[in-house]
Each structure stands twice: as structure tokens, then as C-alpha cells.
Amino acid sequence: MKTIAILGSTGSIGKSTLDVIRRNRDQYRIWALVAGQNVDELAAQVLEFHPEVVVTATDEVLSRLRDQLGASALSQRDWPHLGAGSRARVEAATAGEVDFVMSAIVGVAGMEATHAAARLGKTIGLANKELLVASGALLMETAARHGAELIPVDSEHNGAHQCLRAGRRAEVARLILTASGGPFWNQPLGTLRNVTPEQALNHPTWRMGKRISLDSATLMNKGFEVIEACWLFGFKPSEVDVVIHPQSKVHAMVEYVDGSVLAQIATTDMRMPIQYALTYPDRKPAAAPRLEWDEARRWEFYPPDFGKFPLLKLAYRAQETGGSATCTLNSADEVAAGIVPALGDSVSTDRGGCGRDSREDGSSPMASVAEVLEIDGRSRATARAVIDGKRTLVSAGASGLLATA
Known about the structure:
7-stranded parallel β-sheet, 4-stranded mixed β-sheet, alpha/beta
């Protein structure tokens, strides 16, 4: 039986992971549930899965959880060990009993716990792209040094992981990541100056959180996935392409040096890549629905318009720059929330201000999680200052979400 710690148990990936475990209780045991502030959801998970450890974001949230559990029918012997904050997250992820860590906390809040698990050689399901975007070199080096297995859960990287099993890395010419294109990929550039956050959140394929929905609308999310792929699989940015695929059935393709292309195809259900990560290197039946092949279908592929979606190009440039550039990009994106001019200016303004040992290109090497978090904090402050200076041009929550000038 595999013992699991879930970082981000009340989010969409966390809940899907629990659904996979719910259907396979004879194979998995929940050791730790780590969540943020959703007390109602977390309390229900505790009552169903009886974890040994439960962690919340703050002591105040923990107090509310304790009250809610106290009012339930949970017996005294089934009460978990309760904790809050960063140190408790690290302890939950590094417990000796934990075999597999699902890292699904949005943002950098789960960074310390995930890096700590990697230092202990744990198997980690990576569902948090910010970890690799902000600290890819450090995380990959840590995993390699300590023998940690990093298995991507994002559908695109999970698909690439599957395709790459067909050949040696030296036989691969390029990786192709697909993007649904979000709600605006086929709209004329001129119309994007007036779109609203509400329109951007209306993703045509996936139901996701606010930030990832905004990032999908601007293709920033796909830019982050390019950065992730470079770290996970050892690609240069020039070896990773993006294509718009509105049907979202082909998740990734790998082109080998002989010209053959392998594609990973599946329905849009996160339980499939989650189960793949949990069972790797084996495959087992999954609850995800199957594709139907008894009807005519059409799958389309289009090149991305970098002029319409400049943040995708910005992500490529940040990965080519190296050092702290992608960390700065991630931090600025979270603060700018899709406002393209503010994000671009934030990254430009922050060049050279990210550490004592900044390189000529304006980025900074990062040798520890503490340094990554320091750069993250400085970059967020820079982004806020830039946005404050732009409030006369772009008001928060107003039109111009995707404006490019």
C-alpha cells in the first residue's frame, strides 16, 4: 500500500487525487492533507479519509478547523495531528511514512515542502508549475542528487512523459505542447483591448482556478509550461514548440530524429494523469472516460500568434536568459493578473535587482530555496510598484486585460 501526502488537498488537483484514491482504497492510504483556508472541504476530507496529519495555512484557519472537527462525530482516536504554516507543511511532506507527495499548492507556498521531500528522495507528483518556473534548476539538481522521482501531473507534461518512454532522449528532435488557445485565440487583435476578467475566466475547455484561467487566456500558462518542459526533460527553449489545438484531446507530441511523431491523446480528465503519476512505471485502469472512435471527428492545429500573445514570447525569453529571470516572471505574473503591459514592465524593471550576484543579463543565480523566496518577494514588490504607477492607464478589474500597449 502506497502512503500519500497531498499538498493542496482542497484544490482541483487535490480533490481529483482523492477521487482516484477513493476508488482504490486497497492500494493507497492518505497520511497527510495540507490545505489553505477551505475549512469546510478540508473537514469533510478528514472525516472521510482519516489522515494522520492535517495542515492549514494559518493558526486562525486551524482553529476553525478544530472547532468544526470537534462538532463532528469524529472519535478521539481518529483525530489527526494538526499543524499550520510552512514548517508544518514541510513536516507533513517529509514524514518517514510518506511514499508519494502530490505537490499541488498554487504559487510558491508549497516550495519549501516540495524541495524538502526531494532532498529525502521521495516520489513527487508535480502539479504546481510555479515550482519549476521559479526554481527549476535548483529542484532538478536536488532531485538528481538525492534520487527523487519527479512525475509531472499537468496534462501536457504528463503526455510528454508518456511519449518520451518510446525512445532515448538523444533520439528526440523536439517536443510539441498543445494549447487550447483559451477564449480569445481566434479573436482579432484589436478586440482584445476591451476584454474583461470575466470573459478571460470563461475557459472553453477546462474549469480551473482564477489565476490559471487568466494565464490560459493570455497564453502565459503555456509559456510557463515551456519553461517546465525545459527543466523536466532537458530541452532548450528552441526545442519546445507550442501549437493551438482547440479540441484539447492531443496533450503533447514528441518528434524523433527520424521524423516520426508520437502523440499522447486522452479525454480532458485530470484523473488519468494523476493515476499515471501514482502508478508509474505501471499502468492500471483509470476512472477517466475513454475517447469514442465510432464517430467522425476533426482535430485542428494552428501556430500561436506571438503578436497577439506577447507573454508566450516573454516566457521563452526568460528561459533563455536563465538565472532568476523565470522566477521574476512568475512573481510578476501573479501580481499583474494578466495585465500585459504591467507584466512586461515589471520584468524589465526588475532586471539587475534580484540579488547581490546579478549577472550581466540582469538575472541572478539561486542556490537555495531561501534565495528563491527572497527573489520572489522582491519581484512581487517591483510588480506592485509598476502596477500602482499604471493605475491611471489600467484600473484593476477594468477593461484592457489583454492590452498589448
